[in-house]
Amino acid sequence: MRGLGDTRATFVGNVIGHYGFGLAISLALAFGVGMGAPGLWWGLSAGLTATAIYLCLRFLARTRLPRAAPS
Predict the structure, then answer these.
(1) pLDDT given at position 2
(2) How many other CB atoms sit within 10 Å of the CB of residue 39?
(3) In this predicted structure, what is the pLDDT of residue 71?
(4) C-alpha span between 66 and 46 (Å, rounded)
(5) Distance CA 53, CA 48 (A)
(6) pTM of the full predicted structure?
(7) Chain centroid to CA 40
(8) How far apart are CA 55 and CA 58, in angstroms?
């Protein structure tokens, strides 16, 4: 994404994915449900997955070739 000049979206996506999504799930599973350390790892995995999906979709959207106009 840095090569595309899209560093702000990458930063925002990482913050939301890791802290907003992953940390919330980690805390809920580890302490709310009582899973302990495995709950923290599941939350970390969820945050990484959410961030990866967002960044892949953003990359595909930014590198998509324009469609030719119908003739």
Answers:
(1) 76
(2) 19
(3) 64
(4) 33
(5) 9
(6) 0.81
(7) 17
(8) 5
DSSP string, 9-39: HHHHHHIIIIIIIIIHHHHIIIIIS---HHH
Q: What is the DSSP letter of 67?
A: P
Token pair 């939350």 is found at 43
pLDDT in tens, 18-63: 999 999 999 999 999 999 999 999 999 999 999 999 999 998 988 8
Q: Which helix (H) or strand (E) holds 54?
A: helix 37-63
Residue whose pair of structure tokens reads 């990866």 in the numeric block? 52
pLDDT at residue 69, as a whole number:
67
Number of neighbours of residue 54 by Cβ within 10 angstroms: 18
